[in-house]
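User: Some background: our group keeps a shared notebook of sequences we're curious about, and every so often someone picks one and asks for a predicted structure to add to the entry. Today it's my turn. The entry only has the sequence so far, pasted here. Could you supply the structure so I can complete it?
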Amino acid sequence: MSGADNTIDKFAIAHCCVNHLLRFNHLIEEKIALSTIVVARKGRTACIAADTLTTFGDVRLDSSMDFHHSKIQTFGKTQMGIVGSAAHTLVAERAFNNKDVAADFSTRDSTFDTLIRLHPVLKEHYFLNSKDADEDPYETSQIDAVFVNPNGIFALFSLREVYEYTRFWAVGSGACYALGAMHAVYDRFKSAKDIARAGAEAGAAFDTSSQLPLTFKTVKLTHSERQ
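Assistant: Of course. Here's the predicted structure to add to the notebook entry:
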């Protein structure tokens, strides 16, 4: 790996950490799934991994007490992990199956178009509070997530930004720890699951809102690494 690549990776991770600190600093004490959720790809396999802790302010609900503790949801061929309010889980299960939304997460463009169709449905049927920071240029959908499918690994964010990644990414309050861990092991580890495990375990080890055990989903990719 070149020095330039290392500089870009370090800048991207630092930028992500600043964004996460700003994003989670304003969260009020409600039922919040702060979480560590990661995605990684290596060769012809992609993996998503998530911790299993939900928090209510200072109260922690761990996997032994929560019957529905998995944060990974399945929508067709897509495996997705959403962070933010835990209310998103039930809303996503219904809204992403709404015929008017016609959810398609197969590519970056189709995901963006899905989010455009989703936003008015969230407001009209699920009472979304679409106002966040006064300086935001658009209404927010209040959802951040990472997801994997046979086309690759992706993330979506509350202003309907959509990214596709070539190696790995993470969301949630433990994302900075997860990104550092996956950066450290990516070239040494051969499987996407092992890389994802390293990231999610780092989040669970150091983030107060994340906890073991982890849950995993893997998918076979249509193509190997994209550059």
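Suggested note for the entry: DSSP finds five helices and twelve strands in the chain. The CA atoms of residues 78 and 112 lie 15 Å apart.
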